[in-house]
Design goal:
The protein is α/β, with parallel strands linked by helices and 462 residues long. 34% of the residues lie in helices and 18% in strands. The strands form three sheets. It has a nine-stranded mixed beta sheet. The site of alpha-D-glucopyranose has 13 residues, from helix 1.
């Protein structure tokens, strides 16, 4: 099968799509499925035992060249180069704005993926998000069964209608209010649509969460399934993590206290028992970090301390720097994307905050729980599937704010801090969240079953 994605850890990482593609890809390979991981050749990616060939594409695409070989971390990897795709960042320029030609870059890539499909006739194709959506327009009458994953409906890559004729014979399906929508067409033509959590699969069929595509998704409800992502439990393993000053397990949490001390020092706080909460995030509307802003002056009332590691929106970052200067005893902000520090932020914290406005799946709450750090979350998307409230459900795993609002987040933070103060309750909860299996094993089996059904159905049809 061909699995096409714009991000793949650790080759090109922007958000959770990279981790999800890599985690699923490698677990499917472990299950014996022959997965051809295909991504744009952003430049500077080293392969060994490389072969190279050109794809047969229409003139508007320009030269489409495949490099295929082994990548040191990923294993077998297929890179496609088309004009304009190689950039220092997959989507953003140096100022953090999207490249102006993003739609065009990925439409070229999509057309090249379709040419690879035509050349290699895989038994199945799995496309991810809008970046790969237009590929399906050019599969032709013998299209293999196609799965389309929705990692984030907020991004749709819409372009003008001149593309409808170019992208392929099925281009008309991509017509969307007089424009070209790479996602709407892919959703119309897919044999199966996967949302990255069951709750998100329900939400996106409603106007409030459908980003305009709720209608088409309702129309395809029989093809739509929700499969929760996993995390890479070898990378995210407190018992072996090389980024930590001390390792730990659920039966011996001493190392977690050492990590906590190291994190407190890193964030410049006093060394005491005040609950320490962290956030690791992209700074963008979706993640709701602005909802925490009015709570920062109130932290010492809970009492709680908060450390945020994040990068993205420059205005929000400036605001957070200012708040860190104004409230140095209770708030710290580290701007940047720092993988090593992120491990310490999960391991050393008492609580992990995720005030998302929407969250298709979310990986960070699972990463936090793996390190014995209970999450405080909003009741959206995959957070609903992964974080039952400990005050409301037997076997609960965290603290849920009823509404996406500062007030309700504050209430959940108060509840969390109160429970943490009772040592026995805290340890019971820590052990419980560390015992959950967040690995890709079960999700990958669900994907494998779905692929098998689709391939079998295609075989009986032909
Ligand atoms: P999204 O994909 O919407 O950003 P996810 O929770 O699915 O959210 O995945 C985000 C991934 O990126 C997680 O693995 C998280 O640890 C990582 N990450 C996000 N922001 C940072 C950061 N500032 N520094 C280091 N890692 C980060
Ligand atoms: C997106 C979503 C996130 C999800 C990730 C991987 O980036 O924002 O919730 O976990 O994709 O599927």
């Amino acid at each position: 099968m061909i699995f096409a994605t714009a991000e793949l850890s650790p080759v090109a990482t922007v958000g959770g799509l990279a981790a999800a593609a890599a985690g699923l890809g490698s677990e499917l390979r472990r299950l014996g499925i022959d997965v051809d991981l295909v991504m744009p050749d952003y430049g500077g990616i080293l392969l060994v035992d490389e072969v190279s060939f050109e794809l047969d594409v229409p003139a508007w695409v320009g030269a489409a060249v495949v490099r295929r070989g082994r990548h040191v971390d990923v294993g077998p990897l297929t890179l496609i180069s088309v004009p304009g795709v190689a950039r220092p960042h997959p989507y953003l320029d140096a100022d953090g704005a999207g490249w102006e030609d993003n739609s065009e870059r990925f439409f070229r890539f999509g057309r090249a993926v379709a040419a690879l499909v035509e050349r290699e006739q895989p038994d199945l194709v799995h496309l991810n998000d809008w970046h790969t959506g237009t590929a399906r327009a050019a599969f032709g009458p013998d299209a293999p069964p196609t799965v389309v994953s929705i990692h984030n409906l907020a991004y749709q890559g819409i372009a003008d209608d001149s593309w409808l004729e170019r992208i392929g014979p099925d281009g008309s399906h991509y017509e969307w209010w007089g424009e070209t929508n790479p996602l709407s067409g892919a959703l119309a033509l897919a044999d199966r649509i996967v949302a990255v959590s069951p709750h998100y699969a329900d939400e996106i069929r409603t106007p409030a969460h459908g980003f305009g595509l709720d209608g088409p998704l309702r129309a395809r409800r029989n093809a739509l399934v929700g499969i929760l992502n996993g995390i890479d439990t070898e990378v995210w393993n407190p018992a072996t993590d090389p980024h930590l000053p001390a390792t730990f397990t659920s039966t011996d949490l001493a190392g977690k206290a050492t990590c906590r001390t190291a994190l407190i020092e890193r964030l410049g706080f006093d060394r005491d028992d005040t609950a320490l909460a962290t956030v690791v995030t992209r700074l963008t509307e979706q993640k709701g970090i602005d909802l925490l802003v009015p709570l920062i002056p109130l932290l010492d009332q809970i009492p709680m301390r908060l450390g945020i590691l994040g990068s993205g929106d420059a205005v929000l970052a400036a605001q957070l720097h200012q708040l860190a200067a104004d409230y140095p005893d209770s708030f710290a902000f580290v701007e940047g994307y720092d993988e090593a520090l992120s491990h310490l932020m999960f391991a050393g914290a008492d609580l992990f905050l995720m005030p998302s406005r929407f969250e298709p799946c979310g990986l960070t709450q699972m990463q936090a729980m793996r390190y014995g750090t209970p999450p405080v979350v909003t009741a959206v998307g995959g957070l609903v599937d992964t974080v039952p409230d400990v005050d409301r459900e037997r076997g609960g795993l965290g603290f849920v704010a009823d509404e996406v609002s500062s007030v309700d987040l504050l209430a959940a933070m108060f509840r969390a801090a109160r429970r943490l103060r009772r040592t026995r309750d805290r340890t019971t909860l820590q052990k419980r969240i560390m015992a959950v299996d967040w690995s890709w094993t079960h999700p990958a089996e669900q994907y494998a079953d779905m692929y098998r059904d689709l391939v079998a159905a295609a075989a009986t049809e032909s």
